[in-house]
Amino acid sequence: MKQVLPSFHSFEPENRLSVLRLEIDYQLMTLYDALVAEDSDKITHSKALLNEFRQEWLSLQE
Question: How far apart are CA 29 and CA 33, in angstroms?
Fold first, then answer.
């Protein structure tokens, strides 16, 4: 765990992309659960976060 934590705080694009991929995967699971539960607030929140992650992903790949 101690080896993983520095990558979470790193601003190097390669490390951030790895962390961002994990955050996107987690948020997709959260969105799926919200869709199954038909929780519109959580659906909206998850979609907003995924959009932010998408924008960050695109900016890191430039």
Answer: 6
**Whose CA is closest to 15, among 24, 23, 4, 7?**
7
Q: Report pLDDT for 12.
A: 72
Contact 43, 34 (CB under 8 A): yes
Q: For residue 39, what are its two tokens? A: 């929780």
Whether the Cβ atoms of residue 60 and residue 13 lie closer than 8 Å to each other: yes
Question: Which has the higher per-residue pLDDT, 62 or 37?
Answer: 37
Which residues, 6+ apart, have CB-to-CB distance to 19 below 8 Å?
Answer: 7, 8, 10
